[in-house]
From TrEMBL:
Xref: PANTHER family: DEGV DOMAIN-CONTAINING PROTEIN DR_1986-RELATED, FATTY ACID-BINDING PROTEIN TM_1468
Keyword Metal-binding annotated: no
InterPro entries: DegV (IPR003797), DegV_C (IPR043168), DegV_domain_contain (IPR050270)
Pfam families: DegV (PF02645)
UniProt KW keywords: Lipid-binding
Gene3D superfamilies: 3.30.1180.10, 3.40.50.10170
Protein name: DegV family protein
């Protein structure tokens, strides 16, 4: 069996990774003042940041079932027997719903996976799925590899303001922090597809220190015999990301990899300029694949 891996643009996968692993990416859309743009093509993350700072109306929309089906048909045309389609949390977007509708019309079987995540916490899971697919694993094993790795990841982030999460309706249980938003700089966590409050900090500088410390603690607590991969996300805040990158490399010299990945325009719309996020994920990949079993 040959299996193709499909995901969406909120995985924030670097272009080089998409090409190397042969991953099919379906873009979401950003709507600025009523004009719709395709993520990754029609609008950049920095342009979204500028629009948000200018108080322009910015929203996002899912890919249609037709767009998902186009991706499945292209993958099928490449000769694959099955598709595993991994997407951002259904609690945050109806993208999974579009994928399920498209799957019912796909020319080859499609397994849709709700990652319960977003950003590189999902992206790392997609990369692992692609490695299993390349090794000849069944669709069932490929899908399970994505689920397992997404579940094992930790994703935490700092935002300059909760306003963008509130506007986009993605604030979740972090709404408990709104009453004191002017007095604090919040640290948040993405857990099982939900945004949760993690810590209240008085200043942005202290918040960034706490984000670093929490990342270090999370990595050190992971059961990761093959190492940990870390992604540092930002929206129009590269100096903050580079500073954290240097500190993480100094404190965790033995991690498998650490990289800076700018947030995409869609995720950026909901968290706002100045956001700094981290995703840590225990590495996983196939060693020996025999039928449907991975040893």
């Amino acid at each position: 069996m040959t299996v193709a891996v499909v995901t969406d643009s909120t995985a924030c996968l670097p272009r080089e990774s998409v090409t190397r692993h042969g991953i099919h990416v379906v873009p979401l859309h950003v709507v600025v003042e009523g004009r719709s743009f395709t993520e990754g093509e029609g609008i950049s993350s920095s342009e979204v940041a500028e629009a948000l700072r200018a108080h322009r109306t910015v929203s996002t929309s899912k890919p249609s079932p037709g767009e998902m089906l186009d991706a499945y048909e292209k993958a099928a045309a490449g000769g694959v027997d099955a598709i595993v389609s991994v997407h951002l949390s259904a609690s945050m977007s109806a993208t999974v719903s579009s994928a399920l509708v498209a799957a019912s019309e796909s020319p080859v079987p499609v397994t849709v996976v709700d990652s319960h995540s977003v950003g590189m916490a999902m992206g790392f899971a997609v990369e692992s799925a692609a490695r299993y697919a390349a090794a000849g694993a069944s669709a069932e094993v490929v899908a399970q590899s994505a689920r397992s790795r997404a579940e094992a990841a930790r994703a935490m982030f700092y935002v300059d303001t909760l306003e963008y999460l509130r506007r986009g309706g993605r604030i979740g249980k972090a709404s408990a922090l709104l009453g004191s938003a002017l007095a604090i700089k919040p640290l948040l966590e993405l857990s099982d597809g939900q945004i949760l409050p993690l810590e209240r900090v008085r200043t942005s500088s202290k918040a960034l220190v706490r984000l670093e410390d929490r990342l270090i603690s999370a990595v050190e607590a992971m059961d990761a015999p093959l190492g940990v991969e870390i992604a540092i996300h930002h929206l129009d805040s590269r100096p903050r990301a580079d500073d954290l990158l240097r500190k993480v490399r100094a404190r965790l010299p033995h991690v498998r990899s650490v990289q800076v990945v700018e947030l995409g325009a869609v995720v950026g719309t909901h968290v706002g300029p100045g956001t700094l996020a981290v995703a840590a994920s225990p590495w996983s990949g196939p060693s020996t694949v025999i039928g449907a079993a991975v040893l």
